[in-house]
Amino acid sequence: GAGVSQTPSNKVTEKGKYVELRCDPISGHTALYWYRQSLGQGPEFLIYFQGTGAADDSGLPNDRFFAVRPEGSVSTLKIQRTERGDSAVYLCASSFGGGGNEQYFGPGTRLTVT
Amino acid sequence: GENVEQHPSTLSVQEGDSAVIKCTYSDSASNYFPWYKQELGKGPQLIIDIRSNVGEKKDQRIAVTLNKTAKHFSLHITETQPEDSAVYFCAASTNNFNKFYFGSGTKLNVKP
Q1: For A10-24, how does the pLDDT look when each residue is reduced to its tens digit (9 = 90+)?
Q2: Please, which residues bridge with residue A23 across strands?
Q3: Which of A42, A99, A100 sits opposite B89 (nearest CB)?
Q4: B103 touches chain A (CB under 8 A)
Q5: How far apart are CA A27 and CA B56, in angstroms?
Q6: Taking a C-beta distance cutoff of 8 angstroms, is the pair A33, B101 a contact?
Q7: Does A4 sit within 8 Å of B89, measured CB to CB?
Q8: Sign of CA dihedral A77, B104, B2, B49
Q9: For residue B30, which phi and psi values (nearest 5 degrees)?
Q10: How does pLDDT run across A61-93, given as a tens digit for each residue?
């Protein structure tokens, strides 16, 4: 079946612009996660959704970052007033129910802020 | 918060040899330790995991060991094959298995 998909695969934006990154989880997966992976580093937790609500957003670095999952399926990560330091690969993962069930990762969106 | 350190950063082995990657963690409350394999241009994929009530787990050529007292865990790959070449990440979780702290990764190169 289809895995986790993320769009766009690559995004180049100018400093100060607004961007939206989309994640389509595996159908039926109630838990959804966003991570940020800088070059040569492991993924860094950003936010976790259980259904429509953000169960843990403690990883969001500041108030320029926001994520939504209005219908409990597709999620959008929104970054306002982008900075060069936001450049990274943004990974999305989903799992059935969360709580230790396997997280399936998408291929990521590579964001470059110029 | 939790701090996970991973060594070595790169590892080169001959096909058929074993590979060992080690991780340490700082928070004694961590209770779930997954290992991921990431190939170029792809997201990480779970290869094996272990929970804190178990000391060792094995799945074919892959095994993971956990020492809770010393707060370290290791990935062992035996009879390595070229297709094992990838970046491997360890992770630890302290919060109902939903918030993972990842190590910095080990780039494994298996030479044919």
Answers
A1: 999 999 999 999 999
A2: A6, A75
A3: A42
A4: yes
A5: 33
A6: no
A7: no
A8: positive
A9: -60, 135
A10: 999 999 999 999 999 999 999 999 999 999 999
